[in-house]
Amino acid sequence: IEVMHAYAADPATVFARVSDHARFIAGRGLVCRVVVPGAPDANGLGAVREVASGALRFRETVTAFDAPVGYSYRIDSLHWGPLRLPFVHRGGRIELAADAGGTRATWTSEFTLRVPVLGEWLAGLMARQVRAGFVALLRRADRPAA
Length: 146
Prior knowledge:
Blueprint: E1 2-7, H1 11-18, H2 21-24, E2 30-36, E3 48-53, E4 56-66, E5 70-80, E6 83-84, E7 87-99, E8 102-113, H3 119-140
Antiparallel strand pairs: 1-8, 2-3, 3-4, 4-5, 5-6, 5-7, 7-8
């Protein structure tokens, strides 16, 4: 998955918005909380965050934190209700670059869903939903926090 969004704000301002996990990964039933603080701040390197949306829950670890350039993360577990899904995440990254007086954000994520026979089809369906979610979150981060 790869999505991009252009911001009028500078990279440091955008980084502050997209790296505030609880505010950035929120809305329409989506809730995020940091359960293990990272460094140099709670949202930084090593932070563990839990994200929930309805019956879907996942736990992620921030694997790189390079202000104001971006950060990387890995989804460590994915659950649908009580079931742990056979999901393998090779990593995700939000990368920021100065662009035409503003900032260009690129969000990438690579994963597989190990389900016999239907895995590839289910992963494709999931990828379309995740892509739409990424676009919505990046657009929402275009508005300053209230």
